């Protein structure tokens, strides 16, 4: 079989959640063609997705030696560094994201210079949000660091996030589609850690750095009524149209089983895009659901602030709850785990109130859910 056919077959196996078969195809491809950067890259990428970034790294480095301009291999190597907690190398390499797939060509072209670590006293810094809502929530913490260094920060984000971040002293927040004010320097939000020299060891984790709208908080307190039981929020899926969320999402039936097994708690649905059938099932179980009442992240933040614990997969809800300082229990898939959660740990340096519950094997959510139910039985308010 030709090299490209083997790679294509490996890609099909990967999409079908068959990493071992994918690796076999890629290995055969680079054995018969040791000049194939794609074969080495794909092998390394699947090894990383299987949770072995240290083993993946040599294959990705070899792919880059074959083809120094291989954007995919360079991005995959950056993710390997970050997943291993090697932030010193990872942040620098992560700049290759702007040449990778959906972000290719998306790096803003702005007239003022980009911030590269120089003194910020009396400077106005334009911070550009990027990628998903969870990414922006996670990295917005660094705006406070820039302000502490003497900067005035203008944070540009998705319109649904504007009310979540402010305004606050030294910080102006506005949506992408609004006119930019005058500024001295600019930087993408996920590039800030490199300039600050952020490592796993020196990463500061504030309990919260978000704004809660008092009126929205009062409204949710009234909707929920008096607290008589432990309030547990739940979210089981991210975007349903992406490959990785096929791994991240917990099947709805398993969420239903967990709720049925724990009727002593007041369950609250945080999955705002659940369909009508799912919503009806939850209502029949006595789950509090509020369709049509959440229009932005600030609404979700106010609701989450009224809860005792949030159970969520790796999506914007988990970042929001953890950034609010709420006890946040995050269900993590075993295959293709996101770099920010590192490996083999139940805590995270990013959020002091978050706890990680990991699949023991690919697709096996049962043990993680059982562990969560045990923790719920120990949780006191």
What's this entry about, in short?
This protein has helices at residues 3-15, 19-32, 37-49, 53-66, 71-83, 87-93, 133-139, 142-148, 192-196, 214-224, 243-248, 252-261, 276-284, 297-304, 316-323, 366-378, and strands at residues 124-128, 152-157, 171-175, 185-188, 231-235, 266-269, 309-313, 328-332, 354-358. With 381 residues, the chain is α/β, with parallel strands linked by helices.
Total count of strands: 9
Note the overall shape: globular
What is the chain-wise order of helices and strands?
A: HHHHHHEHHEEEHHEHHEHHEHEEH
Oligomeric state of shown chains:
single chain
* Strand line-up across the major sheet: 6-5-7-8-9
Low-confidence stretches: none
The major pleated sheet works out as: 5 strands, parallel
Number of helices: 16
Task: Quickly give the structural class.
Answer: alpha/beta
Tell me what portion of residues adopts beta-strand conformation: 5-15%
Mean pLDDT rating: 93
What portion of residues is helical? 40-55%
Ends: how far apart? Answer: 62 Å
Radius of gyration: 22 Å
């Amino acid at each position: 079989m030709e090299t490209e056919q083997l790679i294509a077959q490996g890609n099909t196996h990967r999409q079908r959640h068959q990493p071992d078969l994918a690796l076999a195809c890629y290995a055969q491809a680079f054995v018969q063609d040791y000049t194939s950067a794609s074969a080495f890259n794909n092998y390394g990428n699947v090894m990383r997705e299987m949770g072995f970034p240290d083993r993946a790294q040599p294959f990705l480095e070899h792919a880059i030696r074959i083809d120094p301009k291989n954007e995919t291999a360079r991005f995959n190597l950056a993710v390997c560094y970050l997943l291993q907690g090697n932030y010193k190398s990872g942040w620098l390499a992560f700049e290759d994201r702007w040449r990778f797939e959906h972000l290719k060509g998306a790096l803003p072209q702005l007239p003022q210079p980009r911030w590269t670590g120089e003194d910020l006293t009396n400077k106005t810094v334009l911070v550009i949000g990027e990628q998903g809502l969870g990414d922006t929530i996670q990295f917005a913490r660094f705006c406070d660091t820039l302000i502490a260094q003497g900067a005035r920060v203008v944070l540009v984000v998705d319109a649904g996030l504007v009310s979540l971040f402010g305004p606050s002293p030294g910080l102006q927040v506005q949506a992408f589609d609004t006119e930019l004010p005058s500024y001295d320097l600019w930087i993408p939000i996920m590039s800030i850690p490199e300039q600050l020299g952020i490592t796993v060891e020196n990463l500061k984790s504030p309990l919260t750095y978000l704004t809660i709208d008092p009126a929205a908080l009062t409204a949710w307190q009234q909707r929920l009524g008096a607290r008589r039981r432990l309030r547990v929020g739940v979210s089981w899926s991210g975007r349903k149209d992406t490959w990785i969320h096929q791994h991240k999402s917990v099947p709805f039936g398993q969420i239903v089983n967990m709720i049925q097994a724990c009727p002593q708690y007041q369950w609250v649905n945080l999955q705002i895009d659940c369909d009508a059938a799912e919503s009806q099932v939850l209502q029949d179980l006595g789950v509090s659901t509020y369709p049509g009442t959440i229009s932005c992240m600030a609404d979700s933040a106010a609701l989450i602030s009224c809860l005792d614990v949030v159970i969520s997969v790796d999506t914007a809800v988990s970042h929001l709850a953890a950034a609010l300082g709420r006890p946040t229990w995050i269900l993590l898939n075993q295959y293709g785990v996101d770099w920010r959660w590192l490996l083999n740990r139940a805590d995270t340096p990013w959020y002091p109130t978050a706890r990680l519950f990991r699949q023991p094997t690919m697709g096996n959510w049962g043990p993680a859910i059982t562990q969560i139910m045990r923790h719920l039985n120990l949780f006191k308010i």
